[in-house]
Each structure stands twice: as structure tokens, then as C-alpha cells.
Write a structure and sequence with these properties.
- Helix 7 (about 285-305) packs across helix 10.
- A hairpin with a 2-residue loop joins strand 10 (about 180) and strand 11 (about 180-185).
- The strands form 5 sheets. An 8-stranded parallel barrel has the order 8-9-14-15-16-17-18-21, surrounded by 6 helices.
- It is of the alpha/beta class.
- The chain is built from 17 helices and 21 strands.
- The structure holds acetamide (ACM).
């Protein structure tokens, strides 16, 4: 191979890449040599390229495109891979099957953007530039949370969301399945959770505290088959779906379905129509409430093989417990200092249940200091909370709201669509976010697993709106969490051409040049 060439604009940027003149051409005669264990990656490449290119990419022992598991690349970890593109051959190798899936996404990005389209594009030759790439992620947790409780989204859209995560080498879809305003996860033992808890009469218009409602019923829930199908679809793309079932707060929809889970069993609540923090919570001091939670989580574990199971834990007012003689008696009997301590005590029991079933309990950290020690914590309020949680021994995922909450607008332009009021999270803030806070010298920095974006959907009703708020900001998160710190102008220079890929995929996104103009 000869002289270096300008780098194709990959997002995220590979750890090491050299591009050379010349190209490999995919056409109807191209075949794949698939070594044992590499079949899922070969299948994925075929599946992803079929709609636009129609290429059969048949298997053959003489295939020019080789997919191989190679123990010599184990040093690149679960997700690392090596890719060599020469004029007459392509070699994709990895130590683990997941690394091959990441390499497939790189091949996709090296092809012309039209190759990503879901419609037939010009038939014929598809060129891949000659390259030598060695790549592995900086952080093992690179995720996005989607809130399908405030506004339900169909399973077909979730599959598309997963496809777009995988394109950017993101590996966790955190699905926020339950909240005050809706319960979307079917539970066979408690069908009312979705029958009653899956529907609300209307929705607040405007931010929390508003007195205006839209009068429009909203509802929806998934079938078990849809969720199992989503898990399999994501697995084939190397993405883990982590379910979140909120407790002991953010449970108004569950209380509407089952008043006996609350402080006042005779009280009939509605599925909440407002936004904000709701003060009706689970009566955690009652043993039957713990039984309810473990039964639900048992079904959740049946559907979701994710090692991490998220149980919320955030924004839980304790006033109902303080007023309840039964809660006070339980707190005293358990040797707790007050009813506030029932929060950690209850989550400790839930965590022990999940741990006994081989899963890792996961929760939102309010301060970094309040969740039981076996919890993996997602810190969202302050960067300092991540460090506090690390010092307490937690594994931590950084979700600082000022850098990763995509429900905030991307700019202060009044023409932006409705968003969470109170802050702007622009592209540059996401790109600059350091998951390890400022203290990577602490030995415990390795406990920081990575970072994820959050999309709460109080003000986000349609798939188009979800995508607009997600892109291109999620591209910046992908770069940051896969590659590590990259130069802002280098990122912007790659984002321009990368936008052609988003366009080929029909992704609704904020024009990336606008973000560049505002922040440069
Ligand atoms: C959160 O934003 N309540 C985690």
C-alpha cells in the first residue's frame, strides 16, 4: 500500500487508523469467509447492507472478506477489533464476538453513506478505502436512556433507536419503563399494571406546576414478545437493554392499578397527569409490597438478560412514611434512626434480591452517598457525586444533567421544539463531558464505567422529536465514551460528513453546522 490519505470521517473516531490509496470493492461477486464464532457479525453485515445494496454476500471458504475470532486480539478486550482493508481482501478480527460487531459498524461507515439507506440505492459497486485500523473503547459503558413512561413509543421505533446506538458503537439502551405517568412493562402476575397503569386521562401542558392540561388520553404498553424481540434484536447488534422499574418513588401508575401498595389502601389514585415529583410512594414498610416488587423484578429478569437491573431510587419524598404509624413502627423494629432511612433499607433488600439472582442492582444517585454498597450508581445531579460514589466503592456511570440530559434544548434559539426548561445542553457540552470528573489520578477512577445520555419525555411525544433531540448530541457522547477526549474542531470536521450517514438513514436531527457555528 502507498501514501497516507485523508481520514474518512468516522464517529466515533477509531483509536488507531491509517488510510492508504486504493480500495476494496463490494459487488455481487463478493463472498464472506466466516470462521467459527464469527457468524453473528457476518449475518449483521448482510442484514445491514441488504436494503440499500441488495448484495448477497454469500459465504464461501474462499471469501475475500474474512471474519475471524483471533485470541491474539484478546488484549483489545470484549469490544476491540482489528480491520485491514486491502484492494483484494478485507480482514476483520477480534478476540471476542462483540468486537466483530463493532468492526461491522466501521465497515458500514467506511462505505458511501447511501449504503446505510433502508431503500435500494444505485446498484453496482460499493468501495471501501484501504485501511489499517486497531480500535477499542475507552469506557465499557456507553449508553442512552429513553423514557417510554412519560410518552410511549412503539417497539418498532425502539428497534430503530437500537440500530442508531449500534452505528455509534454505543452498547446500552436503558429503557425507563415505569413512572408516575405510565407503566409500560407487562407483568403476568399483575395485569392491572398495564391495563390501568398504562393509561392516563390527559397530560399537563407546560412545565411542572402548570395548571393547564391537554384533555388528550395517552397510553400504551409493550407485550412480553415485543420486549423479548427487542432484547434479541439489540443482542445481535451488541447492545444490552437495561430495564428500569422505578421504586419506591415515581410509582403513581402502579398505585393507580394497586392502591394496596400505597400508604392508604382505600385511596383510589389516578395515573398521574402532571409532571414533577409526586409525593405518593410505595408503603415499603409492608412485607407484601416487597413481595410485589420481587415478583415484578422476577418477571423483568425473565425478559431481560441484562446483568444490570435498574430500580430507580430517585426523587422519593418520605412524607407519607413519616406520617404513617406502621412505617414508624417498622423503622423502629428494624433499628433505623427514622422513617427516611426506610429508603436505603428497602433498596438494600431489593438489591440483595437481585444480587441473589446474579444481577447487579442499579439506581439513580441523589448524592452519591445514599444507595446500598452493592448498587451500581448513575450520578446525575453533580459531577462531585460521581467521585463521592467512587470513594464509597460503587461502580459509577456518569449522567451529569448539564452534559447528558438530552431533554434540555440544544440551543437557546426560541425556534427549538419544546424541551425541559431551565438549561441548555449544547453539542459542545456533551462533547466536553468527562465521565471520570476531574480526578482520573484516583486509583478508583477505574470504577467509572462510562457515561450515558438521558432523554426524559415529558415534552417529547413523537419519534421525530425524540430523534431531533438525540442527534447529533449522541454522536458527541459516542466520541467521548468510545474514543476519549477528542479535539472539538476535529469532532466537528468529522460530524459534517457523518451527517450524510444520518441523512441516508432518514434520522431527524438538528443541523450539525448550526451547533458548530454557535459553539466555535
Ligand atoms: C432523574 O433525573 N430524576 C434521575
Amino acid at each position: 500500500m502507498s501514501a497516507p490519505r485523508p481520514e474518512p470521517a468516522l464517529v466515533p473516531r477509531p483509536t488507531k487508523a491509517a488510510f492508504r490509496s486504493g480500495h476494496f470493492t463490494f459487488d455481487r461477486t463478493t463472498t464472506l469467509r466466516v470462521d467459527p464464532g464469527a457468524e453473528p457479525a457476518a449475518d449483521l453485515l448482510r442484514t445491514l447492507l441488504a436494503p440499500a445494496t441488495g448484495l448477497p454476500l454469500r459465504p464461501s471458504p474462499q471469501g475475500q472478506v474474512v471474519f475471524a475470532l483471533d485470541p491474539q486480539l484478546s488484549g483489545l478486550g470484549e469490544e476491540g477489533y482489528g480491520l485491514t482493508v486491502a484492494p483484494h481482501a478485507v480482514l476483520l478480527r477480534a478476540g471476542h464476538p462483540t468486537g466483530l460487531l463493532r468492526g461491522v459498524q466501521t465497515i458500514r461507515q467506511l462505505l458511501p453513506p447511501e449504503a446505510l439507506s433502508d431503500r435500494p440505492r444505485r446498484p453496482g459497486r460499493w468501495e471501501l478505502p484501504c485501511a489499517e485500523i486497531t480500535d477499542k473503547p475507552r469506557h465499557p459503558w456507553r449508553g442512552a436512556m429513553l423514557d417510554v413512561a412519560r410518552h410511549f413509543q412503539p417497539a418498532s421505533f425502539l428497534r430503530r433507536y437500537v440500530d442508531l446506538l449500534a452505528l455509534h458503537k454505543l452498547n446500552v439502551l436503558h429503557l425507563h419503563l415505569t413512572d408516575d405517568q405510565g407503566w409500560r412493562m407487562p407483568v403476568a402476575a399483575y395485569p392491572r399494571l398495564t391495563e390501568i397503569g398504562g393509561h392516563r386521562a390527559e397530560s399537563m401542558v407546560g412545565p411542572a406546576g402548570s395548571a393547564t392540561y391537554d384533555g388528550v388520553p395517552h397510553g400504551g404498553s409493550y407485550t412480553r414478545a415485543e420486549l423479548a424481540g427487542l432484547v434479541a434484536y439489540a443482542q445481535a447488534r451488541g447492545v444490552t437493554v437495561m430495564p428500569e422499574i422505578e421504586m419506591p418513588g415515581h410509582v403513581r401508575a402502579a398505585l393507580a392499578a394497586h392502591p394496596e401498595l400505597g400508604a392508604h389502601p382505600a385511596r383510589q389514585l389516578d395515573v398521574w397527569t402532571g409532571w414533577g415529583v409526586c409525593d405518593t410512594v410505595l408503603a415499603v414498610h409492608e412485607d407484601h409490597v416487597l413481595d410485589f416488587c420481587t415478583t415484578v423484578l422476577g418477571e423483568v429478569m425473565d425478559v431481560f438478560p441484562s446483568p444490570y437491573i435498574h430500580v430507580g431510587g430517585d426523587e422519593c419524598p418520605t412524607t407519607e412514611w413519616a406520617r404513617s404509624p406502621a412505617a414508624r413502627a417498622r423503622a423502629a423494629a428494624e433499628g433505623l434512626p427514622d422513617t427516611d432511612a426506610l429508603h436505603g433499607w428497602f433498596l438494600g433488600r431489593i438489591g440483595a434480591f437481585l444480587t441473589a439472582h446474579g444481577r447487579r442492582p442499579t439506581g439513580w444517585a441523589e448524592s452519591g452517598g445514599e444507595l446500598p454498597g452493592d448498587f451500581t450508581v448513575i450520578t446525575w445531579r453533580e459531577p462531585a457525586h460521581a467521585l463521592r460514589a467512587v470513594r464509597r466503592g460503587h461502580a459509577v456511570v456518569s449522567a451529569h444533567y448539564r452534559a447528558t440530559y438530552l431533554d434540555y434544548a440544544q440551543s437557546d434559539d426560541p425556534a427549538e421544539p419544546p424541551a425541559q426548561p431551565g438549561a441548555v445542553v449544547d453539542l459542545r457540552a456533551v462533547h466536553a463531558h468527562d465521565p471520570v470528573a476531574d480526578d482520573s489520578r484516583t486509583p478508583a477512577a477505574g470504577q467509572v464505567l462510562g457515561a450515558q445520555a438521558q432523554l426524559w419525555t415529558e415534552f417529547v411525544t413523537t419519534p421525530d422529536h425524540v430523534e431531533y433531540l438525540t442527534y447529533p448530541r449522541l454522536c458527541a457522547l459516542a466520541d467521548r465514551t468510545w474514543t476519549g477526549p477528542t479535539d472539538w474542531s476535529d469532532f466537528l470536521a468529522r460530524l459534517g460528513p457523518h451527517t450524510e450517514r444520518l441523512d441516508a438513514l432518514g434520522v431527524r436531527h438538528r443541523p450539525s453546522h448550526r451547533s458548530g457555528e454557535e459553539a466555535s
